[in-house]
Amino acid sequence: MGLPTYPESYWLATASMPSYGKLEEDLSTEVAVIGGGIAGITTACLLAREGKRVVLATADKLLNGTTGYTTAKLTAQHDLIYDEYIGHFGEEKARLYYEANMEGLEFVRRLVSEAGIDCDFAEEDAWIYTNSGSKLEAVEKEYEAYKRLGIPGSLEKSIPLTVPARLAVVMRGQARFHPVPYLRHLTEEFVRLGGRIFEDTTIDKVEENGDTVTVTSADGRTITCGDAVSCSHFPIPDSGFYFARLHCESSYAIAVRAPGELPRGMYISAEKPNRSVRTITYGGEKLLLLGGESHKVGQKEPGFVHYEALEDFAKKEFGATDIVYRWSAQDFEATDKLPYIGHVSEGKKHIYVATGFRKWGMTTSVVAARLLTDLILGRDNRYAELYSPSRFHADPDVGTLAKENLNVAGQLISGKLEWVRRKPEDLGPDEGGHVRVNGRKAGAYRSPEGELFVVDTTCRHMGCEVAWNDGDRTWDCPCHGSRYTFRGEVIEGPAKKDLERLS
């Protein structure tokens, strides 16, 4: 049976990026930055502004991942977190987290204004609302945390939406924007400053030897540098055991046409599954952008079920007439919900990492870029301790780490024990799933035109069995979040090699 189809992503449809070549020769530079999203591009540009010779390498095309497929909120309101952060880390660190992200927002606001970047930037208040009695206390506590930390906001008994809501906490002075034209501006500035960009360049390893770092691509090319920064979703150098300290979640978004005056503001529900609501402008037309339905990669219902749930929500609450765009994104989360930004591990002086942004990468990426630039230049930064990857908190790290690794073990075992009876010839057009080929488990997808693609479903990271994602036509690893196309090509790490093609 065929699956429902949707248009392509809004973000990549509205602003194209220049194309850059692949690394085809060994070279040397001062700093190598790995990752073609907002964190990588911003870090590379800030270092180039400081006079550093910088190379930026990305496994795919610039912005061809989560940054290009994002709801693009510029906000320090990252769900119900401030009451939790006060409990785990204390008021000082919770306040630092807020201030760091507001500085990130201000950085973007100032650059957009000074450079005149046309990126749909708009000032908006951010709301977390609930219609569930079980979440009322949590929303009230979050507002009390705002007051303790000096965050401008209010507690409201209604919201400017037709969605039912009994209580909401509002953070004032937030914003939204379209990241691709903004990052195109930064990319062009980086190149003007002498920066070099290499796309389609998968980095296989990063090694430190004294004051020299060697970055090696999958095809054996090397970049020799003084410092290397991994801004990819999953860190390339895994000396800090990040595969055990991060878990990956999928989330979904649709852009719809809806009648009447569309609301101002950015909204997210406190209860699960989350519902995120805001307005975007595309081609002079205002659309509603709806997101949510988060789950661990490879560990939930087929992807199309989540798109259908968002479509039902759009029709019921807003009278949506049709879906204009849809996409999904993947994000890594640290055990204590704070990003890892800094030296990759205590023993490495010249290798840095930025990861674990937990769906809030717009402001956090700017925080990361500024912090990493300061660390590389030997300058003090008041956020260094807060985001240090070498930190460890007994509460909540121990419990979360144990839970996550039990989950990984369960997925590894269950994937190997699953018995599959279906054969490739049983698949209809535009259908994929596990099959049996010559007595062994495999994965197959039949295109709408009838072409069959068969792969070994053993993830190339640590051997878990990948699961078929009907919504995006991808193979997703339930253990550590690696993702592959239906052909078996790597989309997201930590895996670096493609799935084995069987036919």
Helix and strand arrangement:
Blueprint (H helix, E strand, L loop, with lengths): L9 H5 L12 E2 L2 E4 L3 H12 L4 E4 L15 E2 L7 H8 L1 H25 L6 E9 L5 H14 L3 E4 L10 E10 L2 H14 L3 E3 L4 E7 L2 E6 L4 E4 L1 E4 L11 H4 E12 L8 E4 L5 E8 L2 E12 L6 H16 L3 E13 L5 E4 L7 E5 L5 H17 L6 H4 L6 H24 L13 E7 L2 E7 L5 E4 L11 E3 L4 E3 L6 E3 L4 E3 L11
Parallel strand pairs: 1-11, 2-3, 2-12, 3-8, 5-14, 12-19
Antiparallel strand pairs: 4-7, 5-7, 6-7, 9-10, 10-11, 13-16, 13-17, 14-15, 15-16, 18-19, 20-21, 21-22, 23-24, 24-25, 25-26
Helix pairs in contact: 2-6, 2-9, 3-4, 3-5, 4-9
CATH topology of the domain at 22-69 and 180-235 and 337-392: FAD/NAD(P)-binding domain
Helix residue percentage: 25-40%
Number of helices: 11
In what range is the share of β-strand residues?
Answer: 25-35%
CATH class of the domain at 22-69 and 180-235 and 337-392: Alpha Beta
Based on the coordinates given, report the CATH architecture of the domain at 22-69 and 180-235 and 337-392: 3-Layer(bba) Sandwich
Structural class of the helices, strands and pairings? alpha+beta
What are its keywords?
503 residues; FAD/NAD(P)-binding domain; alpha+beta; nine-stranded mixed sheet; single chain; 11 helices; 26 strands; Rieske Iron-sulfur Protein; globular
